[in-house]
Amino acid sequence: xxxxxxxxxxxxxxxxxxxxxxxxxxxxxxxxxxxxxxxxxxxxxxxxxxxxxxxxxxxxxxxxxxxxxxxxxxxxxxxxxxxxxxxxxxxxxxxxxxxxxxxxxxxxxxxxxxxxxxxxxxxxxxxxxxxxxxxxxxxxxxxxxxxxxxxxxxxxxxxxxxxxxxxxxxxxxxxxxxxxxxxxxxxxxxxxxxxxxxxxxxxxxxxxxxxxxxxxxxxxxxxxxxxxxxxxxxxxxxxxxxxxxxxxxxxxxxxxxxxxxxxxxxxxxxxxxxxxxxxxxxxxxxxxxxxxxxxxxxxxxxxxxxxxxxxxxxxxxxxxxxxxxxxxxxxxxxxxxxxxxxxxxxxxxxxxxxxxxxxxxxxxxxxxxxxxxxxxxxxxxxxxxxxxxxxxx
Length: 393
Ligand code: TYD
What we know:
The protein is of the alpha/beta class. It has 12 helices and 17 strands. The chain starts with a strand and ends with a strand. Thymidine-5'-diphosphate is lined by residues 61, 65-66, 303-307, 327-329, 332, 347, 362, 364-365, 368-369, 372.
């Protein structure tokens, strides 16, 4: 049974940043509710928005803009070369090439349906297919299961049709091939009140117990995993075909399953108490912003993330509170955050003259950003963060 546990209100598509001429027009909004499936433990948003509305030539996200992500992709690439030595790799969701570029052009194909981003890797002569990952595409790219490694990071959560996705993976992957999936993990998300991991384009946040159940339907199984600290806590899963005996299932996998069950990720009550904490977090964030405004503090935002779209719309925060956001992404600059309609300006180093308090929309890069903005903090500037708890740092 599918059970609702959190209502995040009416939300626009988080990545549909508005141009100036669009800000007075009515935006398409979707009621965003988060649900739990008690059969396979999967947590997802209830409204599945057609993929084509979400991923098109306006898609702004760029992996290469974060040092943290570039480093993370470099590390996994060298592990892949050492451990698996693949001759034919497919990356699903290759974005601007942060993973792709670590490999020889001859050995790798990127799948990236957002044509604007796919162009970046095509220009560097990396074979990139600007289409959705489907069984037909898998058939056309691979000859009888000859792909020995499929990698996909922060992408599967965005694809509604898991049957088509895993079906296509099964068609492409060789007998002893390895599938590596990584993305935000449900355990830290629920533990640390990371409700902004849910937005229209982010359909699923996977747990090991849920992924394990889903993979059974495709004769696939997890044989190893890594816990990562990217995106507020991610998991990287190493997956194989069931009859592939080349890799033994590591004890770590069962350990992680036990950890998740101990926390209660298989029980609906866990999600109900998460929902209560999220409501409290909303109240606290509104109260702190009201107080700062009353004290005449200048507040701006940093990192116009898709995640901050959820927070701003759920808490009904607009430019009365946060004057504007700074962001490094070229496609976001001089546009407005959907729903809240807060302007996004080109990033410049923070100065106390610009703001007293900076709301960290990209809290997942807190370490990287705080290091970069040491001077602002030294001059008495504060960051406002809402996870795991609302506080000024
Ligand atoms: P991210 O959290 O990766 O994704 P999502 O949109 O899926 O929630 O987005 C990070 C955003 O923060 C991106 O727009 C770039 C921006 N950013 C900066 O402006 N400066 C920085 O130093 C970093 C690390 C990110």
